[in-house]
Amino acid sequence: MEKLKNLGYYNGTYDLIDNITVPMSDRVCWFGDGVYDATATRNGVIYCLDDHIDRFFNSAAMVEIEIPYTKDELKELLIDLVSKVDTSETNGETFLYWQITRGANIPRNHIFPENTKANLWVTVTPRKLADIYRRDKLISYEDIRFYMCNIKTLCLLPNVLASEAAKRAGAEECVMYRKEADGIKNRVTEGAHTNVHCIKDGVLYTAPLDNLVLPGIARKNLIKVCNKLSIPVKEEAYSLEFLMNADEVMLSSSSNFCIVATHVDDIPVGGKAPELLRKIQDALVEDYLKATDVN
């Protein structure tokens, strides 16, 4: 069978993404009522699949969505869908995204629909892994999201607004902060689509996993690599001022394992521990290549 240039899947039907339609009655259209996950793939291997599936099921459980698959069934489906896509122009790499919604119901009603099966949506897009060694500019942005940021929910309007603000400022991402949280003024939470970290005096600082921060898989890998390299890690809340004075400022996500930031609000940051930063980045790339090597 000829492979597809990309793939969209909805409840058992798959085709090119542009050919897949979603019913207006799906609650994702009305309420963003669902959760999602995503990761990179290489050589048909889905990177950190177990971690992403565990988080996906945990997110769904926290909003009381029943996934109509076991974890193993969903893994098997995702692997099969990835195998159907042509990756000859991306060195075997794709970006895999999947989401589950609470189902569909008419008429529109905020209350959970009864006797309705959840809807599964998957996209597979050929895409090379982003350059982990690039350098990004950031802006600070007040975190106006709700208090369930630990759930990978589809309700992403505040993140969309933050990302657009960064673009208009000539930056690639935001550092979001709460004006007051945990007794800390301007507490850093995360980015619009990344976790935010910094290095100070040879120690990696990253926000704790509470309801203000998504439990990023790339964050988890970053901590794992630092432990392997004997780099101390502190999972504790810190301020925007602390970040601005850190030795290095970093971002992580499933497609950006550890990106260094050079500016926040046009003010230079970091650049004081390049050798340590490079050691971390190299270790993360090595982990990815090793995990997705099929030879």
Structure report:
The chain is an alpha+beta fold and 295 residues long. It has two domains: 7-126, 2-Layer Sandwich (D-amino Acid Aminotransferase, Chain A, domain 1), CATH 3.30.470; 135-291, Alpha-Beta Barrel (D-amino Acid Aminotransferase, Chain A, domain 2). It is 27% helix and 29% strand. It has seven helices and 15 strands. The protein has helices at residues 27-31, 49-62, 71-83, 157-168, 217-228, 240-244, 274-291; strands spanning 7-10, 13-15, 34-42, 45-46, 93-101, 119-126, 135-142, 173-181, 184-188, 195-200, 203-206, 233-235, 248-253, 256-264, 267-268. The strands form two sheets. Strands 7, 8, 9, 10, 11, 12, 13, 14 and 15 form a nine-stranded mixed β-sheet that branches. A six-stranded antiparallel β-sheet has the order 2-1-6-5-3-4. Strand 13 (248-253) and strand 14 (256-264) form a beta hairpin. It is globular, with a radius of gyration of 20 Å. The model has no long low-confidence stretch (mean pLDDT 96).
> Number of DSSP strands?
15
Categorize the overall geometry. globular
Tell me roughly what share of residues is in helical segments.
Answer: 25-40%
Quote the CATH topology of the largest domain: D-amino Acid Aminotransferase, Chain A, domain 2
Tell me the CATH superfamily of the largest domain.
Answer: D-amino Acid Aminotransferase, subunit A, domain 2
CATH level-1 class of the largest domain = Alpha Beta
Biggest sheet, in brief? 9 strands, mixed
Could you tell me the strand content as a percent range?
A: 25-35%
Number of domains: 2
